[in-house]
Amino acid sequence: MDPPQESAAGGRKRRRRGGARNRRKASSSSQQAPPPAAAAPPPPPSPPAKRRRKDGTGQAAATPKRRRNTSSMLDGLRARLSGGHFRMLNETLYTCSGQDAFDYFKKNPTFFDVYHTGYQEQMSHWPEQPVNIIINWLKSHNASWTVADFGCGNAAVAKNVDNKVFSIDLVSDDPSVIACDMAHTPLETSSVDVAIFCLSLMGTNYPSYLEEANRVLKPSGWLVIAEVRSRLDPNNGGADPEKFSKAIIQLGFSLVSKDAKNKMFVLFYFRKKEKSKAAKSIDWPQLKPCLYKRR
């Protein structure tokens, strides 16, 4: 017997139901699954890592190289600015009178610190310091002598000898230093045994400083002068050292000794005459300003 035949209507109905289910599934799938997105571009390659210098423990150095370079550059600029300021102040001291310099630094006392910082930096390049020679000279003589240190700077003489020392300079932030124009000090006449000028005959009126030293020195007192060699080199525009000595002798001194063996400075040791009388007219040589070149 032949198998029973499905009616055409029933078959069409089942096919329609199955087709509807398939269409619903397809429609649902099309709503849930978004279309595939375009592929994202690959990330840019990372820059190669810089090699970092390690310290002694094997750890990477904490300060980046660029920061270290910037810091060094700033330090260099500060040094150049400080050096330029020092040269300006140094030129001022050599080309104005002592009273003008005193008034200038009295109005701007911090400039004096700038000057002395630059001065110490310049002196650090000298193989020998004249102030140390003078200190040793004082130590080898009488500790009871009273000393006047004209242009004392950081008062190195007073700090290193047992003598009583009057430290004198244009500006003072130390109560032991007398701030004044060195041509007019508050010291009494004939009150000191030694007067020192260690690289401090800087004003255009430097003879008035020496006249003041002559006033405060006792008879037979010592006048010790250290001066930059180039200022006393006539072959280089400086004063004739013989004329310089002669002028001081005419002020009432005798030259005891002169030390010119150092290539940076010259030392003079004068002694005041027992009965000194300054000449009415003294031909003082002009001392060449000691100006530093720009670097």
UniProtKB/TrEMBL annotation:
It is found in: Nucleus, Nucleolus. It is an enzyme of class 2 (transferase). Residues 1-74 are annotated as: Disordered. Its EC number is 2.1.1.-. The keyword RNA-binding does not apply. Keywords: Chromatin regulator, Methyltransferase, Nucleus, Repressor, rRNA processing, S-adenosyl-L-methionine, Transcription, Transcription regulation, Transferase. GO terms for molecular function: methyltransferase activity. Residues 33-48 have a biased composition (Pro residues). It comes from Urochloa decumbens. Residues 11-26 have a biased composition (Basic residues). Belongs to the methyltransferase superfamily. RRP8 family. InterPro entries: RRP8, RRP8_N, SAM-dependent_MTases_sf. GO terms for cellular component: nucleolus. One of its GO terms (biological process) is rRNA processing. This is Ribosomal RNA-processing protein 8. Probable methyltransferase required to silence rDNA.
